Every structure is written in structure tokens, then in C-alpha cells.
């Protein structure tokens, strides 16, 4: 794996990937990860800690993390699996299912397969998903402009 694009903040155990970077093989990191805008992953992304994808990140595989924030206009061809909470921001597209061990927040105009949460699912505005499966509540909110 090319590491020129990755910096590490030791105190918080957080890796930071520069924007407009690319990775042509599976990326597996033990720690937290912040991914810059317009970064491409041509395979899976596996993160032991929290994951934050900025805008327009493209992942050809699946994502697994302790918790995740999927940035606006990002695309993930596979599914997203988190041990805790998962937030999917405006216009993101998930080709597979979203499975979270905590709560899920879906912002307007996202696309995904089945969304399953051990906690609540909060939906803001119109979302395009096959099914919502919450072990607690499904909360629907009007689109806020």
C-alpha cells in the first residue's frame, strides 16, 4: 500500500488521508481515519476505529468500521458495516446494505439497500432505500433547507 498520502496523529491514533488520493488494494488501518475529498479506493476499506469520509469519496468495495460518517456525494459500491453509529450525508450512494450496531442517521437523497440498526434510524427528507429495520425507533424528519 502506498503511504505517501497518509499522515498519522499519534495522540488521537488518527490517520489522515490527503484529498485526491487513491488506493488500488484493500486498506486496513488500526485506529481512526479521516479521508480527504475526492479520494478513491479500488477495493475494501477496513478501519478498527471511527471513520470519516469527506465529500465525493469513491469506494469500489465495502466499508467496515467501529463508527462511520459517510460524506456527501460519496459512493460505496458494497455495503457499510459499523459496530456503533453510522451517519450517511446528503446524496451519498451505498450499493449494498447498511448495518449498524448503534443508531443510523440518513440525510436527504441518499441511496442504499436495506438499512438495519440495533438502535434508532433517523431519516431526514426523502431517502431511497429498500427497507428500514430498526430494533428501536424509526424517526422521520422533514427536509431542512
Could you please describe the fold and organization of this structure?
The chain has one domain (6-141). Helix content is 0%, strand content 50%. It has no helices and 21 strands. A 9-stranded mixed β-sheet has the order 1-2-5-8-11-14-17-19-21, with no helix packed on it. Strands 4-7-10-13-16-18-20 form a 7-stranded parallel β-sheet, with no helix packed on it. A hairpin with a 4-residue loop joins strand 1 and strand 2. The model has no long low-confidence stretch (mean pLDDT 95).
Question: Summed up, what is this model?
Answer:
With 145 residues, the chain is mainly beta. It contains no helices and 21 strands.
In total, the number of strands is: 21
Q: Report the mean per-residue pLDDT as an integer.
A: 95
Strand content: over 45%
| Main sheet summary | 9 strands, mixed
Backbone shape: globular
Question: What is the string of SSEs from the N terminus onward?
Answer: EEEEEEEEEEEEEEEEEEEEE
Residue runs with pLDDT of under 50 for 5 or more positions: none
Class per helix and strand makeup = mainly beta
Q: What percentage of residues falls in helices of 4 or more residues?
A: under 10%
Count of individual domains: 1
Distance between the first and last residues' Cα: 41 Å
* Secondary structure tally, helices: 0
Give the tags.
single chain, 0% helix, mainly beta, nine-stranded mixed β-sheet, 145 residues, seven-stranded parallel β-sheet
